[in-house]
Each structure stands twice: as C-alpha cells, then as structure tokens.
Design a protein that fits this description.
By secondary structure, the protein is α+β, with helices and mostly antiparallel strands. It has a domain at about 55-175: Mago nashi protein, CATH 3.30.1560.10. About 25% of the residues lie in helices and about 30% in strands. It is built from four helices and six strands; from the N terminus they run H-H-E-E-E-E-H-E-E-H. Strands 4-3-2-1-5-6 form a six-stranded antiparallel β-sheet. Strand 2 and strand 3 (about 85-95) form a beta hairpin. The model is unreliable at about 1-40 (pLDDT under 50).
Length: about 180
C-alpha cells in the first residue's frame, strides 16, 4: 500500500532535499488560470496599447408608415473610443419619444455583450446590400456591426422575425434589444 502522505505528489530525491513539491505549485497555477479565464473573453477586445479596438454596432427598427398612435422606432448604438464604451438608445412608442440616452458601459458588461454576440455569430454574417425591392409603407430595419476589419450588416422586415429560418438573426436582434446600461 502506498504511503498516504505521498499520494498525488511528485517528489523526486532532489526535491526532497529542496523540500519542493511540484504538484501544489501546479495546482495553484492552475487555479489562477481558471480565474483569469472567467474574466477573459473569447475575442481580444483591446489592441497592443491596451486601448479598445474600434467597434460600432447599430440596430434600427421601426413600424413603418402607420398611424401615429401605433408608430414606434428603436435605435441602439454601441460604440467604443480608445478608452470608453458608450451605448445610445432612442425609443419612440405611440409616436412619442420615451427614451433618449447615452451612457458609458463598464468593461465587464462590454466583454459579456461582445462574447455573447460573437457566440451568436454576428461577426460571421455577410454584409448585405439594402434590398432593391422597396415596398411603400414597409420598414426596412437593420443591424450593422463593425469590429476592427470585420463587418456585417443585415436588413429585415418585421415579418421576417417570425420566419423559422431566421433564428440566428432573431437571437441577435433580441439580444441587442435587451442591452441596458
């Protein structure tokens, strides 16, 4: 039977003299790696100087041409400058301005949002051109995303959101709509 005092440790003859045990050091290092991984992101959001990489996310959705009492419009704009992140939100409901604000966003919230958007594949969508077919009275809504050299943009009509093949884009739009400072 093995000595219970030495199970799970890697002690060589030389390390017994140095009184150095390698396993606890590995465990401590491993725990630090786990902690740092929970704070890190799946993407690098800062450049080599420690500044935020350029990012611009715009979502615009409206009801189109309807009676004023049914009219709505939403415009969300998330952007970075070198040191700060800002979210601007403008919401009109029933033809009246309900919200018009710009607030600074914490780096932790920004990391979470960007990780979640990248998991949803926002960076993998193509940059669509505005639809050539324009129907009077129908709103053409869009999401535009730029991060460094990555660009994506898609357009949609409100009835597109209920289509079964529109799952990924619907998740992205719904996620952006829930963003609050």
């Amino acid at each position: 039977m093995a000595n219970p005092n030495t199970i799970g440790t890697n002690i060589s003859e030389n390390s017994k003299k140095d009184k150095t045990i390698s396993k606890p050091k590995v465990s401590i290092t491993h725990k630090k790696e786990i902690k740092s991984n929970t704070k890190s992101s799946i993407i690098n959001l800062k450049n080599h100087k420690g500044n935020w990489k350029p990012m611009d996310l715009v979502w615009e959705e409206s009801s189109g041409a309807v009676s004023p009492e049914y009219r709505f419009a939403k415009l969300f704009h998330l952007q970075t400058d070198s040191k700060k992140i800002f979210l601007s939100r403008k919401i009109v409901k029933n033809g009246k301005l309900e919200l018009d604000e710009t607030k600074e966003i914490s780096s932790n919230v920004y990391h979470k949002w960007m990780n979640d958007l990248f998991k949803k594949g926002i960076h993998q969508l193509a940059s669509e051109k505005i639809p050539e077919e324009q129907i009077t009275g129908i709103s053409y809504n869009f999401v535009s995303f730029r991060f460094g050299s990555t660009k994506s943009k898609f357009y949609y009509r409100l009835d597109d959101k209920i289509q079964p093949d529109w799952k990924q884009k619907r998740e992205i739009v719904n996620y952006i709509e829930r963003m609050k400072p």
